[in-house]
Amino acid sequence: MRQLERVRVREATFRDLPHLVEAWGELARYHEQLDPGFALSRGWRQSYAAYVASLLGREDVCVVVAWAPGELAGMAVARMMLAPAFFRYRRRGYIQDVYTREPYRRQGIARRMVERLEAWLRTQGIRRVELTVALQNPTALAFWEDLGYRPYLQTFGKAL
Fold this sequence. Notes:
This protein is of the alpha+beta class and 160 residues long. It has a single domain (3-146), classed as Aminopeptidase (3-Layer(aba) Sandwich), CATH 3.40.630.30. Helix content is 34%, strand content 23%. The chain has four helices and five strands. The protein has a five-stranded mixed β-sheet, with helices on both faces. Strand 3 (71-82) and strand 4 (91-100) form a beta hairpin. Helix 1 (17-34) crosses helix 2 (44-55).
């Protein structure tokens, strides 16, 4: 049996919280290498645990996990956002923190998590979804473009 067939994508629960924190830490450490703007604080574990705990169970957020037998293979988050009233299409989705752990990459797990998030957003009446991608991460850029996402804004940063 292929590893992918043994991986189950489902909504996260509070029991997943310690695993989500560890996986996000891996993702954050990777991004930290790309740009100092992603540097983690000393208390990042507690802060991220509190942040994710505040998302779980909310009606405007969907956190999914991909579980392989005995371990977390990946995670992803989608939120509903409300743009200012001067936009015609105010309700939007935002996808963040899509991460697949190293042994499970290139097996379609991230795609399955994103498809699950997109399906959830559709059931919420969302017709547009946005996300941000580190420009220094060509693998992620290719992944998102393969899923039909196209760049339309670019975020600039400057250390002061």
